[in-house]
Amino acid sequence: MAAERLSSIVSQLTPGQKPIDTITQKNPDDVVITLAIRTPLCKAYKGGLKDTPLDGLVFKILEQVVRKSNIDPQMVEDICLGNVSDSKAAYYVRAACLAAGFPNTTAASSVNRFCSSGLKAVQDIANQIITGSIECGVAVGAEHMSTGGDRLTRPFVDDIVHSGTQDAADCLMPMGQTSENVGKDFNITREQQDLYAAESFRRAEAAQKAGWFDDEITPITVKVDGKDVTLTRDEGIRPNTTFEGLNKIRPAFPEFGDRSTGGNSSQVTDGAAAVLLMKRSKALELGQPILAKFVGATVAGLAPRIMGIGPSLAVPKILTKFGLTLDDIDVIELNEAFASMAVYCRDTMKMDYSKMNPRGGAIALGHPLGCTGARQICTGLSECRRRKAKVLLTTMCIGTGMGMAGIFVNEQLD
Amino acid sequence: MLEFRTQGFNPYSVKYSPFFDSRLAVGAGANFGLVGNGRLFILNLTANGIVCEKFFETQDCLFDLTWSEQHENQLLTAGGDGSIKLFDIGVGEFPVAGWQEHSREVFSVHWNLVNKGTFLSSSWDGTVKIWSPEKKESLMTLPVHSCVYSAQFSPHHPDIVTCVSRDSHLRVFDLRTKPSAQNHLTLAVPIHAPPKVPIPGYGQGSVGPTECLTHDWNKYRDSILATGGVDGVIRTFDLRVPSGPVNLLPGHEYAVRKVTWSPHLSDVLLSASYDMTCRVWTDGSNVDQGGNGAGLGREMGRMDRHTEFAMGVDWCLFGAEGWCSSCAWDERVLVWDVREYMGPA
């Protein structure tokens, strides 16, 4: 009530200000991003990062944060790692940041909201900056799918499984089954899914060839089978992928349905990404380049059995919070967990496909679970810079039935 | 200039009593009315300055008040919790009657000046309700579908109601008409429409919808109203030619929170604004004063002693014609003579 009275008075003072002007306005207290970088995304089990477990990954990306940002590591007060599979993630990020050049006065923690963990880590650091808990922090998203560990090792206790609440029992559902549920419930055909997947590969291939990923990716040198290798390129992109080729692939989850395949689902991938955040006033004081403004993020819950439709709830929710429409958004990064949900979300929300995933998505690039939320920010902002566009929307579905979305404003327009 | 401090409370509205020439009421809220209690101050102008005769505490901020036309000691308050309360100065510390039908903040209350037996309220819930002090339920609800900041009975006709709202329209309701689908609505005038006669130096085009926070009927010319809102421009309208404003009075730098026509002079009005000034204007219609009838209005003077948003002004009905009272979020109620602030004609 009080908040509404206050905002009605504020709007009486700034008449005619459209929501888009409100979010793009530059205020000293804004949370801004001064660095957004990622490692190449490599195929799990056999790719370039197969021998670099989570602590190694986090160490490498944090090393790059120190190197690329020129920030005095002492200024960073907290590092938040978004990771899904590894219950020891908090140990790893703490040890890795100390080894990467941060002093022991820099704290660390980890968060897990499945596929949105990277975005949740960004939100965690941003919220701390907004409330004044810290002035500068790093959000990392990293996942070593090669190690595994992202599935439950035992079912839930009887109390939960036999609670009579279908939603609770459905939290055990494998992701492939949820994808088939979405395909069936919303009539997304195999053809539509393969067409979507082919386009994702085509876009990613074109982006890679044109060198568009070069300003997002920070090359790292790791050991592969004992030898030092410098990784520079995303490995998931299969050149010359066609609809016909994808259409021949047999279903990946035949016990649940026949529409989702290895070709039209997100790839299993290792990777890490990091975002450096601080207040605008702090960035100006330290001479840090301001890449973008963090506007806000939100989460929405829904039925676990069709978790893929998550963005179709989270996106309207965040747009409403800021009084925006999809027309105000210039670039959309929607995580392609499966072609089924990507097609559903794009068509239900009537997204302009030329704005959505212009560099392909997880189907072509891969989905290292905890990394994706931060990776989308790197890719989305790079695309905004290339197009000289302003507003980025990132969103993903979340296993066990949620969706998350975030809004950023690119400020590098020259 | 006389001053009263509403310590701890930020005033929203000030009104002179129609019965006593030295009595004023001020409605206020704690924390700028955003959250916390409200207080109704009953003030007296005495030889020793302004003295608080009594005050009443309420659960939520008071956004407006109006004196009863029937009973010299009674007045109504418009509450942030959607309630309308009738207080009697001689009776205890609690209201003697209350009505709770609005689902959101009540922004204005007004007593019918002609038939004196009804009053109205307007609310953020998008409705204007007509009430009788004897009945527990409202007599009528007029839907506006947009936050109604200000509503009034016409001082000339007991059944004409006007209101202004967030959607930048001035609506006229005639309660004598049959309800039908129009719900008594006879006119909806877009406040932001371009003026009928171009105002030199102001520009011709429509400015786009602008929230309208206040309006008032002229006390002498029965089809003239003035509105004030978020774009800082006061507009006068003639309901006989309602397609656009007759006169534009720009000058305030921020939103205009209250306008009120003089009870003594047919062309003079007073405004209070978020720019911390209260200004006196003429709409140029008084030929004797150098206006030419159809009139270009102009500012005649301003009082800038308030140090926060000026929220309310009211003319004193009795005595010399220039006295008025203003209240602002600087926790002050000031009583002053506009003639002291008027520049050369």
Summarize model confidence as the mean pLDDT of chain A: 95
Structural class of chain B: mainly beta
Number of helices of chain B: 0
Overall, the morphology of chain A is globular
Largest sheet of chain B: 4 strands, antiparallel
> Largest sheet of chain A at a glance?
10 strands, mixed
First and last CA, distance of chain B: 22 Å
> Hey, roughly how much beta strand do the residues of chain A contain?
15-25%
Tell me the number of strands of chain A. 12
In total, the number of strands of chain B is: 28
Q: Would you kindly provide a written description of the structure presented here, covering whatever features stand out?
A:
The complex is a heterodimer of chains A (414) and B (345). With 414 residues, chain A is of the alpha+beta class. Helices cover 38% and strands 20% of the residues of chain A. Chain A contains 15 helices and twelve strands. In chain A, the strands form two sheets. In chain A, strands 1, 2, 3, 4, 5, 8, 9, 10, 11 and 12 form a ten-stranded mixed β-sheet that branches. In chain A, a hairpin with a 3-residue loop joins strand 11 (391-398) and strand 12. In chain A, helix 5 (117-131) packs across helix 15 and helix 8 packs across helix 13. The mean pLDDT of chain A is 95. With 345 residues, chain B is an all-beta fold. Chain B is 0% helix and 48% strand. Chain B is built from no helices and 28 strands. In chain B, the strands form seven sheets. Chain B has a four-stranded antiparallel β-sheet with strand order 1-28-27-26, with no helix packed on it. Chain B has a four-stranded antiparallel β-sheet with strand order 2-3-4-5, with no helix packed on it. Chain B has a four-stranded antiparallel β-sheet with strand order 6-7-8-9, with no helix packed on it. In chain B, strand 20 and strand 21 (247-249) form a beta hairpin. Chain B starts with a strand and ends in an 8-residue tail after the last strand. At the A-B interface, helix 1 of A face loops of B.
